[in-house]
Amino acid sequence: MMKKGVAVSGLLLGSLLSTHALAQTEGSEYYNDRYCMTCHGADGMGSEGIRGPRLAGMEPWYLKRQLENFRAGVRGTHEMDVPGTEMRPMAVPLTDESIADLLGWIGSWEYRPAEITLTNGDAAAGQPLYGTCATCHGADAQGNEALGAPALAGQNDWYLFAQLKNFKAGYRGTHADDTYGAQMVPMAAALADDTAILNVVSYINTLGR
Amino acid sequence: MTNPVSRREFMNLLGATFGTGALIRVGSALGMLPAVAALTRPVLAAPAPGAGTAVILGAGISGLTAAWELAKAGYDVTVLESSNRAGGRVMTVRSGDVVDEIGNRQVCEWDNEPHMYFNAGAARIPSTHRNLLSYCKELGVDLEVFINESKTALIQDDAMLDGKPIRNADVSTNVRGFLGELFAKSFTTAQLDQPFSESEAETIMGLIRQFGSLDREMNYKGSNRNGYVSGGFIDHGVQKEIIEFKHLMKSRLISQTLTANEGETGPLLMQPVGGMDRIIAGFTRALGDRVKYKTPVMSVMVKEAGVEVVYLQDGVPQPITADYCFNCIPAHFMAGIEHNLPGDYMQAMKYIRRGEAIKGAFQAKERFWEKEEIYGGISWTSAPIRQLWYPSHGIHKDKGVILAAYDFGNGGEFTRMSQAERVEWLLKGGEKLHSNYRQMVEKPITIAWHRMNHMLGCSARWGRSGGGMTMEEEGLYHTLQAPALGRHYMIGDQISFHGAWQESAILSAHWALADMDQRVRSAA
Questions:
Q1: pTM beyond cutoff 0.95
Q2: ipTM of the prediction greater than 0.85, yes or no
Q3: Which of A92, B67, B343, B363 could hold B443 in an S-S bridge, CB 3.0 to 4.6 Å?
Q4: B417-427 per-position pLDDT tens digit
Q5: A49 vs B335: CB contact, 8 Å cut-off?
Q6: Any CB–CB contact under 8 A between A21 and chain B?
């Protein structure tokens, strides 16, 4: 967990000061938008207590798209997606520069697979179900940038479970501008119930670690 | 006695009138009054040779308590605080302060005057909280009386009297009058489990008469207890009209007028002069450079030989090893910090839900409430702001800070609003009580503890059943209270039956220190 590329704050100070509209009162603290660890855990390891998923190792292109989606209201506006609605206000004040800063910062965190917490699923039963997922996310759940599909391996299993449920219920992927999310909706709909979702996530837990 | 009502019927009637809450008050933060806390300050043994270091995670009041007691006993203490300020939910907002809500950063622009502040978290110190009071004394924190109930403050309910606000005393006097008459008419010695003698019955009837301000025929015909409409000093007073109970009973808030001086708000309440964070300043002054700010904890590894902690300082990981670790980081954050705490610890931590309490405050351009004979105290409304608190301090100054909302249990809706929506919500609520409110207030501050940086929740919620902890929940609580490997202790009001009070946080630190001390002594 010791990270290396941490000495970026000084370099970016100049651009960061312009990233927030609020006035700085005299003597107030230097301020930036680097709030991620509060919810996403130390070095972005994920934090189940807050329902903040692992960011360490997440692809910069995927992070960028999601931050932009949250900022634009493409994600985090469905009232049933409670953690999403909690993420949205964090993204709204971000400028393109501060998103770039965050990507650089998050990119300095080393990939580390998340702890497995779902242990009561049937990975063998999940394997055939994963076949559909593999088309875009890859046989080893390593992701595919060309298809806009992020890696699933090593992500928090409780997060994957929650997002599949969200896609299935229409809490995510139903915004008119969520092009990639819209592709997920029918995929999640094909999973019959919570047990099927649990099984496919349990199978993903066996991949790429 | 005519028309007797059996006791059971009477209790049922009361229940129907006030809701079950009036009869059975369990587990609520205000309704419950724990026993006066014993002074539990541990007298710690000097550290064992080569085992004299302690690291405290979080500079909340429990962490500061542990740090101060350990420092006095001779331990080498380091306090790691992720924020740029100590105190956690003991937080006072005044001119120039930043309210570090994630996604809604606010800067306080109130006049820079000593009385222009607002306690965004802890705000009241009951006289029964002896341990907290003892630290105030030790650390030189000046206290003043906090006015919790003022009979001239207002009660307003859209369901009652067409939403017109009335004085607290108008409610309580008329409710007691009605109840007194009801008691008198239903009282017969035969219906009580314990028979009373004639003279005892007379005493009881006398009490009932006083309780309800009844006339000699035991009828309620109004009272001067809630003040006259006019006169009374140098000419005859004109008594107020009765407000009939059938109108008052439309509001659930009437119980507030009868119970404000019971439970945890029953003892004399106090506040530090100048803001609740004067207590925190007392601790940090005493601890000096032992407290490190902006040092978020990244990793906590409890080993046989000691506790290894990694924290960030200026973005660079720093290791520190200590013999003992006292941890008041909100439990919901621990899943996001690398650690090797036992699995049952994590199970307990994941069980706790994050509190959603909210508050709001405005700078009042003038102390308009004083023109309505309100000095301190709380007005209640059925609007979702629930409460307005008038400051006990700064009486007769030009301006004041009014607490514009306080919802302890259900702040979710407010939390999800934009700042503009929150402010409108505050104004709409305040207008119910004071028609000129919108013109009188400015410079809003909103506090949604669920979104505050470094906190993301108000007091931990253990019970999910609404009636205190279940046996299972109590089991989880004890799991989290117990030390890991005799070296790592979770502390804070989160490790108590009585969240949201500083005394609970202090007592949890004392419990942990006493446990550690007993281990140190038995090893010696």
A1: no
A2: no
A3: B363
A4: 999 999 999 99
A5: yes
A6: no
